[in-house]
Specification:
Distance between the termini: 26 Å
Number of domains: 2
Structural class: alpha+beta
Largest sheet: 9 strands, antiparallel
Helix content: 10-25%
Radius of gyration: 20 Å
Number of helices: 4
Order of helices and strands: EEHEEEEEEEEHEEEEEEEHEH
Length: 308
């Protein structure tokens, strides 16, 4: 089965769960900015979690189904039409051969995930179909989709699909979000006053923010210790403070290592919410303890398990 791209949207890329296992070679993980919505979309159409979806960013595409297909859209709230019929997200639907799916106005969040039964089938690179825009690998030659592209769909996994609508288990941002963080490995390089300022400041995502990371505009943070650091691993959600003092929140296409002081890290349960932010949105940080972060992750996984 094939999907034809009529209009590509602003930034629509092929993403699976990411390119894990090659960070030691300097290869970024990539994958979805909101892994929770990606996972639910695959669940709704009976796919394995590692099947590739289309990540739709801010402005959505128009796509023609060239054969009968089962699909679902999860994540950011968009107006959606299948041919002339308005349709809802968060539930699987059948599209007849020749049908056109159109994304309209965005209401909340920044990224939606379109899953099709069988998954988007592009050649894997280092074990993943994810598009890494910075490295130019994966997906369709390491680039977003374009008008005229034809996307092949794989064979259905025939897993039991969720029968009822399944929404994302967190509140989609409408202009901004508060996310929970834990102090980073170099938090001791910052004074208590600076740590307090970090927690009280409402930052704005700068216009250069992208899948690699968010440049945060707001109160500059000063280091108490300015000695150089050795580069070390940079997991998703790491918040670094460069010499400018304006934090950088590392996201899906982050580099594998970094040498800036890490003031905090977004907890695993809140990274998907951070992935729903767009340039111009605000973000605030709430420091929590390890037990709270663990409890939040357990609650998220339990919510996803109940959907199966």
């Amino acid at each position: 089965m094939t999907i034809r791209v009529v209009e590509p949207g602003l930034l629509t890329t092929v993403q699976d769960q990411g390119r894990w296992g090659s960070q030691a070679l300097g290869v970024p993980v990539a994958g979805p900015m909101d892994a929770v919505s990606h996972r639910i979309a695959n669940l709704l159409v009976g796919n394995r979690p590692d099947r590739a979806t289309l990540e739709v960013t801010v402005v959505g595409p128009s796509l023609d189904f060239l054969a009968d297909a089962t699909f679902a859209v999860v994540g950011a709230e968009f107006e959606l039409w299948l041919d002339a019929e308005p349709i809802a997200a968060n539930i699987s639907r059948r599209a007849a051969r020749g049908s056109r799916l159109r994304f309209g106005r965005r209401r909340a969040g920044a990224r939606a995930y379109l899953a099709v039964a069988g998954g988007i089938d592009v050649p894997p690179v280092l074990g993943s179909r994810s598009t890494d825009l910075a490295s130019g690998i994966g997906g369709l030659g390491g680039r977003p989709i374009r008008s005229g592209d034809r996307l092949e769909v794989g064979h259905s996994d025939n897993l039991r699909a969720a029968g009822a609508p399944v929404g994302v288990p967190f509140r989609l941002p409408r202009g901004g979000a508060t996310v929970r963080v834990m102090p980073g490995l170099e938090a001791g390089r910052f004074t208590p006053r600076t740590m307090g300022l970090f927690e009280k400041t409402r930052y704005t995502l700068g216009p250069e923010s992208n899948r690699m990371g968010y440049r945060l505009r707001g109160e500059a943070l000063g280091l108490a210790e300015t000695e150089s650091l050795l580069s070390s691993a940079t997991p998703a959600g790491t918040i670094q403070v460069p010499p400018s003092g304006e934090p950088i929140l590392l996201m899906a296409d982050r580099q594998t290592t970094g040498g800036y002081a890490r003031i905090a890290s977004v907890i695993s349960a809140d990274i998907a919410m951070a992935g729903q932010l767009a340039p111009g949105d605000w973000i605030e940080f709430e420091v929590c303890q390890h037990r709270e972060a663990l409890a939040a992750l357990i609650a998220l996984e339990q919510a996803l398990m109940r959907a199966t």
